[in-house]
Amino acid sequence: MALLVDADGVVRQCTDTVRDLTGRGRQEVVGRPLDELVVDPPRFTEWAGHDGPSEFGAVLRHRDGHRVEVFASLVRLPRDDARPFLFLLVPAEHARRHRQGRDLARALLDQDRVGLILRDATPEDGWPLANPAFFGLPASAQGSPSLADALVDEDAEAIGARLREVMRTGEPLVDFEHAARRRGEPTAERQVSVSAFRLHDASRRPSGAAAVFTDVTGQFVARQRLTLLHDVAHRLGQSLDVTRNAEELASVLVPDFADHACVDLSDTVLEGGDAARLEPGTVLRRAAVATAAGPWPAEVLPPGGTRRVRDVESEALAAGTPVVVPDAADPADTGPVDREGTQPLFPAPAASAVFAPLLARGHAFGVLGLWRGPDRQPYSEADVPLVEVIASRAALSLDNARRYRRERDTVETLQRSLLPAPDARMSAAETAGVYAPAHTPAGTGGSWYDVVRLSGTRIALVAGKVVGHGVHAAAAMGRLRSAVHALADLDLEPAELLTHLDDMVARLGENDRSEGPSVAGGLRGATCLYITYDPVTGECHAASAGNPGPVLARRQASPVPETVVRPGRRLGSGDGSEPYAAAQLVLQPGDVLVLHSGPPAGAEQETAPERRRSQDSALAAASGDTPLASIAEDLLRDLHRTPRPEDVALLLARVDRIPPERTAYWEFRAELDQASRARELATAKLAEWGLDDMAFTTELIVSEMVTNAIRHAGGPIGLRLVRDDRLVCEVSDPSQAQPHLRRARMSDEGGRGLFLIAQLADRWGSRYTAGGKTIWTEQNYPSGTRGDAPADVER
Predict the structure, then answer these.
(1) How far is CA 282 from the centre of its chain?
(2) Is the confidence at residue 101, as pLDDT, over 60?
(3) Range of 162's domain?
(4) CA-based radius of gyration for the chain
(5) What is the distance between the alpha carbons of residues 596 and 561, in angstroms, rounded to a whole number?
(6) Last residue of some domain: 616, 634, 655?
(7) Is there a single domain that holds both residue 185 and residue 55?
(8) Which among 595, 453, 597 has a CA at the least distance from the CA of 535?
(9) Omega before 172 cis (within 30°)?
(10) Which stretches of 486-569 are assigned E, i.e. beta strand?
(11) Are 239 and 336 members of one domain?
(12) pLDDT tier for residue 248 given thresholds of 50, 70 and 90
């Protein structure tokens, strides 16, 4: 409300808004003294000497009797005016808000913590800065500086694009965060939060825009570091491989925290050993690198390269704190970092660096190196706490991986030491074994295979799997393998051997009282496939305890794998009332068997990929003469490429026959005169084979065994000689009674036959057959004599 008041305090003129504050119209106010409207009005004679406006609080009298607080401003008009004073009255609340808005605008324009942009609707105006100090420009900057004058082009364009969108759509922009690097400090990290809105005139037409900038660099850096720590914690430790952890550490730090990163580890740690500290001369191998753009700099030590810790580095890193190099271009600023060597320590574009030792649980594993280029804020002591936390987490993950690798290597070494030689060649078969550990932290389990030499020229092929993983599984596998060897020495049929093996596992389980993993616990539920093969007759006998059986591929038949045996119950998993099923078939030279260790506990069958690999390997081996060792290598590479939850063992066997010309068989009646005939036939055959030097001992062995069979077993009696890598002599009879070696007294007329045989033969024994038993002996050839055995047969 405005009033014109003369020097006597009489209202000469007023605005229509007088009714809003006093309840009176213009006619009621004009011509009346001011004191009827204002409580304690000013004395205008006292203001005669004042030229400028005066402001003060006042109280108005409203027509209905209440009082209205106002803010008054008194202005003296020119002297020649008959109404010399202009009296301006504003409600106190409105005046207070006006003052606050004015103070706010002044504060925004004067302080440097909040930026302000005010612009009109003219598109050519750009984005003028209302307070240049916030943007790093002096308040007295020439002209009217804009956003493009204050920030680097990239940041100014990104923020300007969002402000133009506000002008175009009228949609407010709230808390838009972006980098705002000043032109004078392009490497200094700075982040702002921008809120903007469009301005409108009284007709709601766009009249401009306002934008408020808040510096959130501190919060942004804190969030960035928390995010980095979260990524480090999430990605490190996912693998139990030392090198993989080093690669994850380098990659997680680039590009957010570094432009280049490398992890150098000691060879001792990479091999699973311990390293107490980074002594001078310690060999460090570059295990992992990462770079923000392009390949790894050629002038820097490449991945896989080695360097040695020097005295100055050892002393600096021994304290366990990171070493910061703020200015890599200044030799004096590199501190304790020794830059002498065959290759520079710093990449060419590096402007700053930090090196942190990787220490955990009293062990030193290596060094983490980080570099930044000149376009980024250099590393400083403020980065040390973050680098220390990252290095500590990384060292713990490396230590866990190192310990796991050492334990796994120990178990795998034990496992492999318990397995036979992977490749073997005998008259009966050519074999090749494959063992591949799992790709899981469980690693090595109890999968195994074996090739057992039986009496004569026969062999046994075995494959199986015990329950569990680790050392207990390896020990259980070794125990089961020893039991199979002991039972195989009795020359039992496969089904009978598995029955004895099942009884043994059941007895061990009854005596086992341990609650955790144990050897006996690993045997319960184990699988075992046992196959015997006779290269003289081609007969093959098989039985299975929980194993799906071998894959059979015949060379002369259609290329379709055959099913050989029906799996029985797992070892130690039943009451033994159901016998194991036996299978019998005849194999021809070149036929291939592939034995698989079988499915893990709880699974009834192999997975389709595992079975398919076995079939493909069998068909490849049966279709040609490719050495099994080559096929096994291809199979092992394929197994290593495919992740598996369990370890696996496979045994490939390509069977053969002993040629008829290297065997001889005769059958005799149970009459004593047949012993002399047997000696004559055996001696003649040895002469035919060129083994005259062995005729005397062989004649005695044949005579004793045939005579014993005639006296104690009856006929018919069979005699077989086999010229293999050893000379084999076998005598068969219909009796099930096994011979026993005893020492005869001086007065005894007999009882020395088996004792004599044991002295003359290198090995001897007996085995049950379907029609009785067979007593056999083996003799090594005299020195310098090979007995015309195949040249590729191993002795």
Answers:
(1) 28
(2) yes
(3) 112-215
(4) 50
(5) 14
(6) 655
(7) no
(8) 453
(9) no
(10) 527-533, 539-545, 551-553, 562-563
(11) yes
(12) very high
